[in-house]
Design goal:
Chain lengths: 475, 325
């Protein structure tokens, strides 16, 4: 099917960040100190496992950042030369992959793996003698377990069978991958394959391959089960409007990643530039920058964000002509939120960098550079910045988890992402009353909780590993 | 000492003016009052007369900074800036959309906010410091390791889930406390129990880890080694030396949030239906009541600056190495 690619602004920034990340990796591989520090991260088993999990999340987010508009089916009897029409709905590659999850919408709530709906309904059933009888019962789901037909009692066996088959396939694939990795490692150092296998699993490699493979094993196993069951059942149930919860949590990942990463595009230049300049030049420049960040800092974060977002809403609502599609509006609102979060959260890092720059500028090598007549700009970029890099990297990874958590709270308060955009915050917001129902609808919240917890936990663990590796005081 | 405090107070003035100008720019320059009127009245069917009326009712029909038409002092005073922003310094916040006086509302709502925030703060501090001390005492053992793991896991859970889960568990399943609401006098205790408990628990993760690092930094210092070399017991070292000295950075670190306790907590108050300042702010945000949000921003910054000054003073009080200059 021909498609029309769409580049949303947030896609652009995401891919810009990917390019920057690749560039930074290439650059730091050539810096002996940074390479050594990253090597220490690679030796940290918890860090590697966390990074693997994050990479899986990132993959979901990246797949969800390639957008297109599918072609509408041509009208019957249209001539071949007619203009092709594209849908106004903007889809992503992930949406395309998850078409079964996206399109198989039930009427309303249904429990995970259920074949019948959550609430009873009045139904008309045709009796054997041909008469109609009305009764109240749980209606059969349109898609959940549809392949079983009327043979619903087989559902548990069917679910177990599908899960086991998928799991088996996953484990076999994973074992093959393990053998491949350990075989390559063995060939590289010139030992037998069996010895390579042993070294990997006894943690005798410099890079923690065992952690990577173990984390990958967990991911592959879960993914296999989800793929095996997802086509036929609603693995995490459906929400109020009958949408698959698994689809929603997967879509939330991108929003969280955009908030956590794109924000740093705003924070970083501001914090690094202003912080270093203030610490290096001192005097009135320092006073001015300090005044700026003390003022910004003295407004409680949530309130400043609330005020800015309210104003953004006014601007968006009074200028509907700015946006061609709803997806574009939601996307720009997401970016504006990143921008606002960035503008309000650079102060901490700037203060840290200023303090460090104040210390560094008194050191001999900076004074020597000054005595040689090296220009200020050059001293800043060649002598101060590389020696502050570890603080920047640590702050970057530490901020990520905080931003992901902040998005949920802000969306709950109503000053977060667009209500039509799927995110952890909007999921929680929509589901917050569901536990109060009788019987409680627990699956939406639980799915959001588990995914968010794993994402933030992995980010926190990686942040710890990075801090341990980069902070000179820890070594 | 007095001169020092006066100097700190004077330093706060330009910051408050900065905050005031910033919020003014955010609320009146980024979007004109016309935009706000259109938003409030509904974008579609809005006549210029309706906008004029809306603006006149709220006093937004005046010029921003300079009123050329008014004579005398009126050139400056009969402007949006003077009436809406400058008067906040005098504690006059104007009226909310529902016509009530904001300053009075704030005074009334401070009490429930404090009733939750203060016990949460005190109890939380006590619990986290004790827990961190325990971990530091058993440092590099299994207890320490799993304690830190627990902290990292706890800080990876969104505050929303603590509240939702806590309400579900204690109010719906066990029916120990009411789900939400607030009452006066001793009756309030029933309503406060759960929010305070949740507030304490949700803060354990990050604070404990932070205090543990402070304790561990202190433990590696020379005077602690000297104390051990003198033959003091480990408990004596921990409570007599490490705890006392580590309390300096901990206490000075928390002093800054004490004034902000007046503001209450947005999430807790809105979930538990407590008529405090936090829920007031949330309601204002949802109703797009700009006057209330503006007032809360201003009060929040004043309280933060008070906190900063208190922090500086407490530093000089507890740490004799710091001088007043």
């Amino acid at each position: 099917m021909p498609i029309q690619p769409v580049l949303l602004w947030s896609d652009f920034f995401i891919w810009l960040l990917v390019a920057a990340g690749v560039g930074a990796a290439w650059w730091s591989a050539r810096q002996p100190l940074l390479a050594a520090a990253w090597g220490r991260v690679g030796h940290n088993r918890v860090g590697v496992a966390a990074a693997t999990l994050l990479a899986a999340f990132a993959l979901v987010g990246l797949l969800d950042s390639l957008h297109y508009r599918p072609q509408l089916p041509a009208k019957a009897g249209a001539s071949p030369g007619e203009k092709i029409n594209y849908s106004v709905e903007v889809l992503s590659l992930l949406d395309g992959l998850l078409t079964p999850l996206r399109t198989r919408v039930e009427k309303t709530y249904s429990e995970p793996l259920a074949t019948r709906a959550y609430a009873k309904e009045m139904m008309e059933v045709r009796q054997e003698d041909g008469s109609l009888r009305t009764l109240r019962d749980y209606p059969r789901l349109r898609f959940g377990g549809a392949a079983l037909g009327a043979d619903e009692v087989r559902a548990p066996a069917d679910i177990a069978g599908r899960a086991l088959r998928a799991l088996l396939a996953g484990v076999v694939g994973w074992l093959a991958l393990c053998a491949l990795v350990s075989g390559r490692l063995a060939r590289k150092v010139g030992v037998p394959r069996r010895e390579g296998w042993r070294r990997v699993w006894h943690g005798e490699t410099t890079f923690a391959w065992n952690a990577l493979l173990a984390a990958l094993g967990v991911i592959v196993a879960l993914l296999a089960v989800l793929v095996g069951l997802g086509g036929e059942y609603h693995v995490f149930g459906t929400d109020k409007v009958g949408q698959d919860v698994l689809y929603q949590v997967l879509k939330s990942v991108r929003t969280a990643l955009v908030i956590g990463l794109v924000t740093t595009l705003v924070t970083l230049p501001l914090a690094v530039f202003l912080g270093i300049v203030a610490g290096y030049f001192r005097g009135w420049i320092d006073d001015l920058i300090q005044y700026l960040y003390t003022t910004l800092n003295s407004i409680p974060g949530v309130l400043l964000i609330a005020a800015a977002v309210l104003m953004m809403q006014v601007a968006i609502d009074t200028h509907p002509q700015w946006f061609a599609t709803a997806a574009e509006r939601a996307d720009l609102r997401l970016l504006a939120l990143c921008f606002i979060l960035g503008l309000t959260s650079w102060t901490g890092l700037a203060r840290l960098l200023r303090g460090e720059a104040l210390k560094l500028r008194e050191l001999e090598y900076v004074q020597a550079a000054q005595a040689f007549g090296v220009s200020d700009l050059r001293i800043l970029s060649r002598h101060l910045l590389p020696n502050l890099m570890h603080i920047v990297i640590i702050a970057l990874v530490m901020d990520f988890s905080g931003l992901v958590l902040a998005e949920a709270v802000l969306s709950y308060v109503g000053i977060g992402v667009d209500p039509t955009m799927i995110s952890f915050g909007t999921m929680i917001n929509n589901a917050r009353m569901e536990l109060g129902r009788e019987p409680a609808v627990w699956w939406s919240l639980t799915a959001a909780f588990v995914f968010m917890f794993v994402l933030v936990l992995a980010a926190n663990l990686l942040a710890d590993a990075v801090r341990d590796a980069f902070d000179p005081r820890m070594a | 000492m007095l001169a020092y405090i006066v100097r700190r107070l004077l330093y706060a003035i330009p910051i408050l003016i900065g905050v005031n100008l910033l919020t003014f720019a955010l609320f009146f320059v980024v979007n004109t009052p016309d935009d706000m009127a259109r938003m409030q009245l509904g974008v579609k069917r809005v006549t210029p007369e309706a906008i004029q009326k809306w603006k006149a009712e709220r006093g937004y029909d005046k010029p921003l900074f300079v009123n050329g038409k008014a004579g005398g002092v009126g050139v400056v005073t009969e402007t949006i800036f003077f009436e809406k922003s400058a008067r906040m310094f005098a504690g006059d916040f104007g009226r909310a959309e529902d016509g009530r006086d904001i300053a009075r509302e704030i005074r009334a709502r401070m009490v429930p906010s404090l009733a939750i925030a203060l016990p949460t703060f005190v109890l939380g501090l006590f619990v986290t410091v004790s827990f961190a001390l325990l971990l530091a005492f058993f440092r590099a053992t299994a207890l320490d390791f799993w304690g830190v793991v627990l902290c990292v896991a706890m800080m990876s859970i969104s505050g929303l889930f603590y509240i939702i889960g806590g309400q579900y568990l204690f109010a719906k399943i066990f029916r120990l406390v009411p789900i939400s609401g607030f009452g006066g006098g001793l009756d309030a205790m029933r309503f406060l129990l759960l929010p305070v408990l949740i507030g304490v628990v949700s803060g354990i993760g990050s604070s404990t880890r932070w205090y543990r690092t402070i304790f561990l930094e202190e433990i590696n210092k020379d005077y602690v080694r000297t104390a051990r070399a003198k033959g003091l017991k480990e408990t004596a070292v921990m409570f007599g030396h490490v705890l006392r000295n580590a309390l300096i950075p901990i206490l000075t670190g928390v002093v800054v949030v004490i004034p902000l306790l007046f503001m209450g907590s947005l999430l807790t108050e809105s979930f538990f239906g407590i008529p405090g300042l936090g829920s007031y702010t949330i309601d204002a945000i949802n109703a797009q009541d700009f006057a209330v949000v503006r007032a809360m921003v201003f009060i929040g910054s004043v309280l933060y600056i008070v906190g900063l000054i208190l922090t500086d003073i407490s530093y000089t009080l507890v740490d004799p190495r710091i001088r007043f200059n």
